Amino acid sequence: HRVVAAQIATAQEWNQVQPQWIERDWSGAPPEAAAALLELARRFPDPAVGRIVVEGQGIRSTSARPGAWHGALIAACERTPELPAEIVLIFAKAGDEQAWHVLAKRDPRAALELARDPSRRCGVSLARLLGEHGTAADVPTLVRMLESFTLSPDSQRQVLPFIERHCRGNLDVANRLYQQLSGRPPSEVMLAFTTAAGVAIEQLAELIERTPQLQRDVASVATGAMQGLITAAQSPVLVQALDKALAREPISLPQVQCILQLMQACASPDCLPALRRALASPKADPFTPDVARAALAVAGPQRRAVLLELLGAPNSAAVQVALDADGLGQEQELLPRATEALLHYGKQLGSVDTLFNSLDPATRATQARAVLQSPNFPQFHQQFCISVLQALGSLKDPQFVAELAKGAQHPDLLVRMAAVEQLGRVFTRDAAPFLLELLKDDDEAVRNVAKESLDRLAEYLDARTKWDERLHRK
Known about the structure:
about 475 residues, mainly alpha
């Protein structure tokens, strides 16, 4: 060892060192031999001097030049604990990836310190190193690794302890994990979700600001977790965030939805002025239903006033939210405005089952008949008309046969079919003439429903006659 070390010490140029001098078993090397190898590394730290770059046909590769000894010295340090780890540290600092892998085994903390350099690529071995030795200072390193490498299942298991220790709630990590794992089994993708679900209330502003850049599922999980943490104390942050989001061009729909969901969870009346401003802004049209629902959720003592505002809104989407609101049917003072809204927006409204189901039978009949008797009924939206017909038909009252029959004149096929079906459910002879007439409908589906309704009505009437005779027989 001493003879070889002496030869190495005399080298003035890197290529004066012969690889066979290094390719030996350095076990038991005396301190002066180890020192000679360390000094050699310090004099010629760049492994690139022993390599040649070959380019051709778009291919670039690197191979060792004859006489290159750097790789041999790195390998010697890997198998010989007596040699100083500083040797591979020097080569790793010079950019040799294999030296970094050896350093990760010999001196993990030094390897992690090098890996923190944003310009350095350290390979997949970093997953194990982070999992075993990483600290909070290494989180940015993990993010860069996720940008550069796809985690194998083994790498994922290796780095998992680090993520659990230092990355819960880190949106960058959650986002990168989801991008990598979205095609993997659900059990693996769950790592991204559990990371996102670790958000803290102190991250509220960050979550809102970052939502446009987050994967949709990651944003959804983080927002859901934040909903369980938020209180009225955070309402100023939400108000400021909503005003800021609506002032941006273009507006981020995911960001606005995140804010509105958090406002609903917060349920603070302090959010109501901002929501009213949003409802008055044409820029909020794409998410008017979400704004209206949030306004109702935070209204508190002003709920009736907000319902009244929504029923009179110039936007049918806001009106639909008011009509779907729980308890509207018990607000007797608001029912006339609800009727006005039904008649005014019948062309744009969808189902109104929630409203009609909350009404007492008499009020339900009044509301439904007002719609069916409207001269604009033939232009009303399909689902809206079906909902009204079903509400009136559910009363099974013969006096409403004429209104139900009017529904059978609607130009929409599904509306006519619903009207015919409800006529058959009234179980009265008065429906028979209308059903017979509908056997002439141009559409076979309507004719089939009319025939089924007539058969059901005939069966009912026959059964009733038979049982009337039995029950009244002396």
